[in-house]
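Journal club side-thread
Mid-discussion, someone asked how the predicted structure for our own chain would compare to the paper's figures. Pasting it here so we can look after the session.
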Amino acid sequence: MTRVNDASDPAAVEDAVERLMAGEVVAIPTDTVYGLAVSAFVPGAIDQLFVAKERPHTLEIPVLVSSPTVAEDLVEGEIPGIAQWWMDRFWPGALTIVLARNYDRRDVDLGGDGSTIGLRCPDHRLVRELCRRVGALATTSANLHGEPTPPTAAGVAAALDGAVSLVLDGGTCEGAPSTVVAIDATGAPSVLREGRIPIAALTPT
């Protein structure tokens, strides 16, 4: 049975860190919706995330980071100027940026073809702390693939009972998902999904 612990309890956070470092799937509150998270660097953990969510392996799983500095280590070459502006302007926040992935980090299987990585620094202190302590979190919405994301910890636990070891209860998480932008091989920016941040805000003025 999936455990539900209060996210404001330091002992519960310690428990979550231990489980993440052991490769387990933990559901966490974020600044958008509840997410399913695993350590991005523990061997086999991301495989467990695909299984828990019943997510097709062709779909890449994004990564949450504690700061732009961590993101730089996961990106191939220098971060393009427009992507740097996005980070400066919207991080921490609801913007996922898809960039060319550091070749040395491609041994971590996030799904997709492995050439890119979607990165976000969340506007949620607890999640950034978990990212800082674990390294980075491969995270996707806390629902079975194609199903709606429950807005409460109890709902997540019921929907994914047995598939996740722990849910951190951070209250109601309800709202638009992150906006997703990308930089292609030519350096051209594009919007893959409009979410909380409107498209009009993404162009420097």
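Post-session note: Residues 3-202 form a domain with the DHBP synthase fold (CATH 3.90.870.10).
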